[in-house]
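Task: fold both queries, return tokens.
Query 1:
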Amino acid sequence: QVQLVESGGDLVQTGGSLRLSCAASGSYFNINSMRWYRQAPGKEREWVATVTSGGNTNYADSVKGRFTISIDNAKRTVYLQMNSLKPEDTAVYYCYTRNALSTYWGQGTQVTVSS
């Protein structure tokens, strides 16, 4: 079992920055990657970014060049640095991972970008 706890969501103005954190606990071994997803009101949940335990990253086109995902394996924490935020980035942001047994989601953290 893996537990994921996100933090760092807030209300920010257009052009501002936020850093989200996702702390993992429990059976962390055999986890090769972690992801961030987001879900805006009335929309489906969408993938934002992925980081592997080796530090390789991948981003959705909508956030490429503005968001940076990183991982601290010693702290079992993944971060999402979000710069140049836009109103369309407003969403609940979720951390996700999986191992051979199951998939795991955090409870989400709200990011609101005002225009």
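Query 1 returned. Query 2:
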Amino acid sequence: QVRLVESGGGLVQPGGSLRLSCAASGTIFSIYAMAWYRQAPGKQRELVAAITSGRSTSYADSVKGRFTISRDNAKKMVYLQMNSLNPEDTAVYYCNDQARGYWGQGTQVTVSS
């Protein structure tokens, strides 16, 4: 059984940074594309960033140049480094196994002064 567990969310001031982590268990991790999504109150869940097994990355236009997705296959971890955060980044952030459709429980990110 695949399990994804996110961590690293919290409250941060505008302009600040956070690093989200996603730990995967029960899976052959290295061959699957992974992604981060987010869902703000009253809005649909949206794709933030994705990374392939070969470490090719893609980003939503709204986060390009500010967020960086990475992975450590040996540790079965996916990361999302978020810099220059603004209030529009406030959302629950979810880790996703893109190939098989597994989701984590989400971690709350709140950007506020």
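Both queries returned. Flag for query 2: The first strand starts at residue 3 and ends at 7.
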